[in-house]
Amino acid sequence: MEINMTFLGQMISFAILVWFTTKFIWPQLNGAIEERQKKVAEGLAAAERARAELKDADAKVATEIKQARLQATEIIDKAQQQANQLLDKARAEATAEINRLKAQAQDEIASMAQRAREQLREQVGALAVKGAEKIVQREIDPAAHKALLDQLAAEI
Amino acid sequence: MASEPQGGLTEYIQHHLNHLTVNFSADHFWFWNLRADSIVVSFVLGAAFCLWFWLFARKATSGVPSKGQALVELAIEFVDTQVKDTFHGDRRTVTPLALSIFMWVFLMNAMDLLPVDLAGWLVHTFAGDEVAHHTYFRMVPTADINTTVGLSVAVLFIVIGHGIKAKGGFGFGKELLTAPFHASNPIAKLILVIPNFLLNVVETLSKPVSLAMRLFGNMYGGELVFMLIAGLMVSWISFVPGVVFNTAWAIFHILIIALQAFIFMMLTIVYIATAREHH
């Protein structure tokens, strides 16, 4: 238990140690710790913000999808309507065309029948004249009886 | 050693309580004795602490810390939390002070866990019998009253410095003479100067004494117990209980090592905090 020069030596050592710690150890490490604390706090805040943003975005997406779906339904309805209209028009046109063609064909048939009837009438007239000629070759003067024969041909 | 003729446990312990002393003065006056073992061990430990923490402080990153940095930061944050709780002010010098005290005292105390005969054995092995015969070496600097008094007196200066800085030279002097007994009229004030001053001197001086004696007593006592237990191991009969006691005491001593370092640090902070208060 004697106090001697060692005491002074230890005091000086201690002073040096405290100086060194204050100057070279504490500021750097404490700076790093505080900076990290700030970073962590910022990170947490950013995460919170991101979560809120994500929630907003989700809501937006939901409304957007709803709208898109509505629009799609509308478009499909319209398209269907248009298709129906086109179909109706096409059907009407086709019917008209058919009717037109049918009328034309009937006309043609009628005119052809008429012509055939005319020809037949003429041939029958000629035939009748020829037959009559054979029968009454001598007795009938074609010039004198032409008016009668024409009348006959018209009657047939 | 127990087998030496005049030996026995008493001599063994007395042998181990001698310091490695050098004296540079011409007349070998006792005050100029220098306990080389305390100085060297404490210096090496202080330097080791500085180097260790400085290496991590140098490349300290605010990103993901390495395990080593995390350990160093753990120590720093532990000390800083204690300082924050007790001392409300600018911690830029107080926490480093507390950290140095805590780590240095802790490391010096921890030397108590090394075997008591390790130093002697090393000297014996590497320097030979002749040197070992008159070389003493005590491993625990805090079991030397010089170390603890050196620390606590330095702390006293720091505490007084904080007091003067917080109140100014005049305010500090005035408080020395007018507190803790206050009076309203000038004559009573004058009479109270003497008891106030005496009380303050006692109060101030009691701080380093209690700091130094507490740490010294704990470590010295711990070391003595280790030596007593080591005395058991001279005989094969008591060897096993010796090992058991030694282990048990070492485990218990870990608590004392950390606790005494913590107490020294805490009291320093408390002293600084009270020195900054106005009375």
From TrEMBL, chain A:
Keywords, in A-Z order: ATP synthesis, Cell membrane, CF(0), Coiled coil, Hydrogen ion transport, Ion transport, Membrane, Transmembrane, Transmembrane helix, Transport
Query: Where does the chain cross the membrane?
Result: 6-26
Q: Is the Cytoplasm keyword given for this protein?
A: no
Q: From which residue to which does any coiled coil extend?
A: 47-122
Does the keyword section mention Cell membrane?
yes
Major location, coarse class?
A: membrane
- Indicate how the chain sits in the lipid bilayer: Single-pass membrane protein
Which Pfam families does this entry report, sorted A to Z?
ATP-synt_B (PF00430)
| CDD domains, per database record | ATP-synt_Fo_b (cd06503)
Family membership noted in the UniProt record: Belongs to the ATPase B chain family.
Subunit composition? F-type ATPases have 2 components, F(1) - the catalytic core - and F(0) - the membrane proton channel. F(1) has five subunits: alpha(3), beta(3), gamma(1), delta(1), epsilon(1). F(0) has four main subunits: a(1), b(2) and c(10-14). The alpha and beta chains form an alternating ring which encloses part of the gamma chain. F(1) is attached to F(0) by a central stalk formed by the gamma and epsilon chains, while a peripheral stalk is formed by the delta and b chains. F-type ATPases have 2 components, F(1) - the catalytic core - and F(0) - the membrane proton channel. F(1) has five subunits: alpha(3), beta(3), gamma(1), delta(1), epsilon(1). F(0) has three main subunits: a(1), b(2) and c(10-14). The alpha and beta chains form an alternating ring which encloses part of the gamma chain. F(1) is attached to F(0) by a central stalk formed by the gamma and epsilon chains, while a peripheral stalk is formed by the delta and b chains.
The entry's protein name is: ATP synthase subunit b
TrEMBL record, chain B:
| Gene3D superfamilies assigned to the protein according to its UniProt record, in alphabetical order | ATP synthase, F0 complex, subunit A
User: Which cell locations does it reside in?
Assistant: Cell membrane; Membrane
Task: State the superkingdom.
Answer: Bacteria
Database matches in CDD domains: ATP-synt_Fo_a_6 (cd00310)
Descriptive protein name: ATP synthase subunit a
Q: Which family does it belong to?
A: Belongs to the ATPase A chain family.
Q: Which UniProt keywords apply?
A: ATP synthesis, Cell membrane, CF(0), Hydrogen ion transport, Ion transport, Membrane, Transmembrane, Transmembrane helix, Transport
Q: What is its main location?
A: membrane
Q: Which Pfam families match?
A: ATP-synt_A
Transmembrane stretches, start-end: 39-57, 94-111, 145-164, 224-244, 250-273
Q: What does this protein do?
A: Key component of the proton channel; it plays a direct role in the translocation of protons across the membrane.
Gene this chain is encoded by: atpB
- Membrane topology listed for this record: Multi-pass membrane protein
